Amino acid sequence: MTSLRHSIVLASMMALVAVLGVLARPPAKDPSSAPRFLLEEIVPKQFGDWRELPEQNAQIVNPQTKALLDKLYSQILTRTYVNSRDYRIMLSMAYGDDQRGDLQAHKPEICYPAQGFTLHSNEPAPLATPFGAIETRRLSTSQGPRHEPVTYWFTVGDTVVKNKIQLRMIEIRLGLTGEVPDGVLVRVSSIDNTTGRAFAMQDAFVTDLLASLPAVDRIRLSGLRAGTTP
Questions:
Q1: Average pLDDT over the chain, rounded to whole?
Q2: Rounded distance between C-alpha atoms, residue 35 and residue 110, angstroms
Q3: Residue 63 has what DSSP assignment?
Q4: How far is it, in rounded angstroms, from Cα 196 to Cα 186?
Q5: 3-state helix, strand and coil shares in percent for the chain, rounded to the nearest 5
Q6: Which pairs count as long-range contacts for 137-144, CB under 8 Å and 24+ apart, including other chains?
Q7: What pLDDT, on the 0 to 100 scale, is given for residue 97?
C-alpha cells in the first residue's frame, strides 16, 4: 500500500511539473532581437600562455553537420589555440538563444559517434578552477588513429546543467519571470594519445580562459561566481 501511495505522489509531482512548464512557457523569442552577447567579442584570441592559431593551421573537425548546427544554435565559435610548448587545444562554443524543446544543445556523446567517432568513455568530472569547480563531462573518443579526449559543459542562463530534470526546473523558473532560456555549450578537446595529459592541459586552458574574462562573462560561460561582488 505504501509503495502504491509513493507511486501516486511521484506521478502527481511529475504531472505538476509538466503543467507548470506549459503555464510558464514564455512566447517565442523575436528573431530580430539583439543577441545577449557575442562569443567572438567576449572570448579573447590570446590569454595566459595561449594564442589562437591561424585558421589554415587549425585542427578542428566539428562532429556536427552545418545544417544541424544552424538549427540548434544562433552563434558558433571554433578556434584552435597553442601554447609555448606547441600543445594545441580546440575550443568550440555554441550559443542558442532558445534552449526549449528541440533546440536544446546537442551533446558531444551523441554527435561524435554520429560522425564516425568511437566513444570509449563518458564520465562526470568536476573541473577545479580558482573560482570553483565546473560540473563537466569527460569523453574519450577516437576515429582511426585520431584519439581525441573531450571536456564539455552546458549552461542555461548562468547555471551549469547536469541533467534533464535540472534543465526542466531552470526552464520553469525562467519561464515564470517571462524569460526564454538561452544556453551555451562549451567544449574543449585535444588530439592526444595520453588521455590524462590531455585532460590536465584542458583544465589549464579553461582556468586561463576564465581568469582572462570579466566576471560577468565568466559567470555566463561557467556559472562560477566566486570572487564577484554580490
A1: 79
A2: 27
A3: S
A4: 20
A5: 35, 30, 35
A6: 137/108, 137/109, 138/199, 139/108, 139/109, 139/112, 140/195, 141/112, 141/117, 142/117, 142/118, 143/116, 143/117, 143/118
A7: 72
3-state secondary structure of 67: helix
- Please identify which residue in the block is written with the cell numbers 535540472: 166
In this structure, are residues 210 and 218 in contact, taking their beta carbons and an 8 Å threshold? yes
Angle at 125 between CA 120 and CA 129, to 5 degrees: 135
Return the residue matching grid coordinates 576515429.
143
- pTM recorded for the entire structure: 0.77
- Enumerate the domain spans of the chain: 38-222
- How far is 222 from 133, CA to CA, in rounded Å? 9
Segment 98-102 shows an average pLDDT of 54
The whole-angstrom separation of Cα 213 and Cα 194 is 29
